[in-house]
Amino acid sequence: MNVEELRERLENAAQPPHPLTPPLEDLHRRGRRRRRQRAGLLVTAVATALVIGGVQLLAAKHPEPATPAAEPFPAYLGMYRLSAQQTGAAGQTDFTPQALTGKVDELSITCTARDAEHRQVLVTSPGGVPVLVACSRFPTNPGTLGGFDAGGMAVVRKTPIRFRLVDLDYQVGEPPPAPLDDPTARLAVAVYGLP
Amino acid sequence: MTAELSAVRGQVEDQRSTHTADFDEYVAVRYQQLVRMARLLTQDWALAEDLVQSALVKCWGSWGSIRNDDPTAYIRRTLMTTYFGWWRWRRSRPERLMAVDLERSMTDDYTLIENADLLDALRSLPKRMCAVVVLRYFEDLTEAQTAAALGCTVGTVKSQTHRALRRLHLELTAVEEAER
Asked: Coiled coil located at which positions (chain B) (predicted)?
């Protein structure tokens, strides 16, 4: 069958057996209904987008509070008893030994932070030598920072000690880095003492 | 203020009624040709009317913007996308008429009997190939117009046309030989 023959046969096969009249009224009715449906869908989509955007905006404005320090400090760690604890923001906290409850001869501390896996804690006090201590997500056995008597880090009860999260590659002697630009990075410090 | 509002409302109403009248006029003139084309695509008059009406309903809302360009090309493209969408959705082949149905429809559709082999051959083609044949040899579109209607390249139209003609030839020859 050549192309002309095909044209002829297609023409013949498409001859309607009866006159075809367009249902104009029905088309208009269906068209209007379709437009209403599409407008409804558009409104729904815009409303959904607004709600999602609003929720995201609210979430950005009010960040979910971070877990204080991953895990709470227990009352006892081995033979040490919890004397004081406090939590800072932006990876930093200042602790004044005067706040200690009870009699503590030496400052044994443990530090926790939610993202402690890649960090350590730099401990500085005015006039004292900076010290790096380990930081963990879970409270570990306290490390002795120094005593109020002779020996160890010179600790003055009235002088605040600054604890700051630093990266693992930080070396003592380098200028201390700026506090973390993350309000949710909370460093928690607990002081334990012998009962 | 109220007068201005009613004037604007009147203008919108006038515009809408002009669009409606224009749409009606266009459909009255082109409806038969569109259904005939759809009949070759679907091989069924009822489906063809459904297909054309669905395409026209889709174009109804945007008639104001398409009426000034080339409404036929737009409607043809809409018809094709609707057609492919239908078959993609249904996934199965359309119902085929049995001998009883053919006898029953003989009285009002003589073309069905005369062209049963051609319609069967068209039905056996992949949908896009069938559309290429209909657009090229029934609508007499150029390759570029066919490509625009199908949303594909001219090269695709050429290759599809070549394959479609070969398959149609094989199908129709096989039917003729079987009849002998």
From this structure: none
